[in-house]
Amino acid sequence: MAELAEPAELGLFVFRHPTDWGAQIEYSDLYERESVPLRPLIITELPVLIRSIVEPLRFAGLDFRGVARLQPAEFVECDVWEGYMASDGTLRSRTPL
Description:
Strand order of the largest sheet: 1-3-4
Number of domains: 1
Number of strands: 6
Structural class: mainly beta
Largest sheet: 3 strands, antiparallel
Low-confidence stretches: none
Number of helices: 1
Shape: globular
Helix content: under 10%
Strand content: 15-25%
Mean pLDDT: 84
Radius of gyration: 15 Å
Order of helices and strands: EEEHEEE
């Protein structure tokens, strides 16, 4: 059976949420960058069908190469607990974009 490629090998950046999901959580913490691709994938390289699914999820103006920590709630509507840790280190209450 063939092994699956690592996301970075496919040109994808990987961010992981550091929270222990079994713990009592009151806010969503920042995601931490785990891996960086040697050659980032460009959205126009994707097949049209996949691009049409991914395009609405793009984080406008964000260059993943310069970001070590990320809060998706700052870019797209998300379900978060009571609030979230913003990229500037402040806690924000749960409010829609």
